[in-house]
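Troubleshooting: if your tokenizer reports a length mismatch, compare your output against this known-good record of 120 residues.
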Amino acid sequence: MDTSAIGGCCDPEFQEWSLGLLRDFQSRTFLLLLSELTEAANLADAYLNHNILPHNFLNDDRHIAIATVAGADLVASWNFKHIVHFEKIQRFNAVNIEMGYKSILVFSPREVTTYGSKSS
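Known-good structure output:
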């Protein structure tokens, strides 16, 4: 459900149907599911609120948030300024733990790939 459906509860034009929909959820006529994108957006907002990155780099926050919410073990990125950066990784993970998620590892692709290793 989009948040505008909830906001409609306060708008006379949409109030009747928005409140009806909420009653349907309460009576279990419908099951309310929150997408991972909603969770990831909330986590990215938390990163913004903690000033990990400047607000104009929201997409970088989203990359970390989506991977975290999806339960990824690591993020591989060439973005050394905002993502593969020791201080930033610590700060992302502090928010992750505060929000109930596990820490996530962040490496450059060079550190992750098996390309060029003796066993490949």
